[in-house]
Amino acid sequence: MKRIKFNADIIQYISIFESLTNSKVKDCIVNDDSILFVIEENDMGRAIGKGGSNIKRVEAMLKKNIRLVEFSNDIARFLQNLIYPVEAKEIKNENGIVSIYCFDMKSKGKIIGRDRHNIKWINDVVKRYFEVEEVKVA
Fold this sequence. Notes:
Blueprint: H1 8-21, E1 25-30, E2 34-39, H2 44-48, H3 53-62, E3 65-70, H4 75-83, E4 88-94, E5 97-102, H5 105-112, H6 117-127, E6 134-137
Helix pairs in contact: 1-3
């Protein structure tokens, strides 16, 4: 696993999130308008809170959209968590190339995103944890 370095802002976001939700954060990725928290395995329920109450509190405090993904050492399961709510028919890892197979074109389009924005972002996130060359939608 690669070493991830955090700056002061990210450490502060993680600290706020953990104190408000009582869940463990593995990683935090900040975009312009949102923050992705990668949560330790089996901590998702606690992180979300009853009726989404914890997420709403954190969003109000940080004034950003919050996205949660549960970490898994299994790349296929982690990818499925990352692309949720889109369902993948199958996820295969062959020689460092991870292929996501979809049920229909609509799902494929959602994963790829406008101007390939989503698939680039998915590639960046997956490469933080796994030694892969590329994630692609087949």
